[in-house]
Amino acid sequence: MRLDDFSHLECPLARALDAVGEWWSLLIVRDLFYGIRTFDALRDDLGIARNVLAKRLKKLEAKGVLEKREYQPHPRRYSYGLTKKGKDLFPVILTLVEWANRWEAPEGPIIEIEHASGGHAIHPELVCGECKRAVDYKQVRLKAGPGAQRPEALPLPLRTK
Amino acid sequence: MRLDDFSHLECPLARALDAVGEWWSLLIVRDLFYGIRTFDALRDDLGIARNVLAKRLKKLEAKGVLEKREYQPHPRRYSYGLTKKGKDLFPVILTLVEWANRWEAPEGPIIEIEHASGGHAIHPELVCGECKRAVDYKQVRLKAGPGAQRPEALPLPLRTK
Fold it and tell me: What angle do CA B102, B104, B110 make, to 5 degrees?
């Protein structure tokens, strides 16, 4: 089996991983957030082979994470932009950045996040959108949802002792 | 270059990706949250080759995401458990689950998250840990932190139009 094919796993995490394609593709999403939008600019920034980049872009486009837009007809030129689905990956990127700043930055954070209006640095945390209480693995319970095909096979609940 | 070697990139996201190893490894972290702890149980659940699983576990152990614990001396048997650093990946997993529930579950969420105390489903959102305002890509600004070696080379700010 292909190691990056998670589709056989009935798990939303596996589906998310499958949809994004691979770790590496998140760097493309990051670059699009930075406004790096053309094939050549992405290639220069990421320093990877053209065929590999082309394959990743095609996958992200097929999954609806980004869209290709013609910005010049003769000669035909395209740029890439995040869709709503792609922009919705921002919290994923941010939680990874926060994790790295905490655990993989012995010399201090490389990048800090601030409110656009100025002021203090942001250390994002996850809260329940409804009651605004913090969401911690010790305080949540998972249950099978309406999309579960074999609810009895889900290895719930979380046990992290 | 190895596609999964991000260490040349001065970016906390790249460091996080490098530390976790690859997408696929998050499924190991998920299984440890579920209490699946031995090599054979992990192998059974993930359905992958022993040598591949061994390599991933070794990498996660080297990066301090999990630790190996002897639970039986004769014959020697080990289990795996998340460290504090590993458990701190929970928000990453949760934001990916939420993303998949929103975008990759046409038949409804496979798994729903609830408060352990019961009550309503949780749709996690990111807020600033200090002022509790929502953290949205339109409302944040990135700046070089103390760990940036070449601050002038960072492609800030975010531009997502």
Answer: 80
